[in-house]
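Please describe what follows:
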Amino acid sequence: MRAMTGYGQARKKKRGEEADIIIKSLNSKYLDIEFHHLPPQKIALEVKLRKLIEKKIFRGRVEVYLFLKFFSREKAVFNFPLFYDYYRQLTRMAALLKIDGKLSIKDFLSLPGLVRMESSSKGEDNLIIEGEREALARLVEFREKEGKNIKKEILTYLKDLNEIIRKVKKIKPKIGEELGKEDIKEEITLITFYLRRMRRLVNEKSNLPKGKKIDFLAQEILRELNTCMSKTKKVRVASLIVKGKTCAERIREQAQNIE
């Protein structure tokens, strides 16, 4: 079980260059990823970075902050085929127009397409990807640690709920005798079933999302408890049901924090 809130940071350095990656996650119904400070020339890299997160995180709002320090790797690339074509055309034109003059390299530099600037960013991209992997691993570790705390709380509420239902079951036969139609046997049976399912779900070792399922079961328990409350007029049973509703509501609150 994992919480949706978490934090992870990593700093990668190589030959004076640096990539500092911070990832934080918050509660959300769906997976929502947002990148901050990603340079425009790295837009293509965003797809790879996003896929790395989607493999590890299933639910929550994930914000990635990138603080990059890279040296310029731009280099000039000369288009020789185009240069020779320009040269032939200009030489032919000079001969036709009988223009006497020598062509220098300066004459060609202003012509379009002869020189372009290229940047090599493979090393930079690898550094960013390594940094995100490390920060992501720490985020997952953080979420798992928080998830263990939430699990303990939910199991405590489940234990209290089971005890409440056990007490209600002891009182139930008297309700049938005294009030006739106020039988809540079916509701209690359903609540017991939902409690067993939830305990099994909470104790599963799988890291697949559980928050929505736990929330659904807690809602079903609350619904059955509300039905019990509407049926019974016995003070002791009503008091126990109120306590049970409080436990179920606390479970729902915790479910909002679970992935």
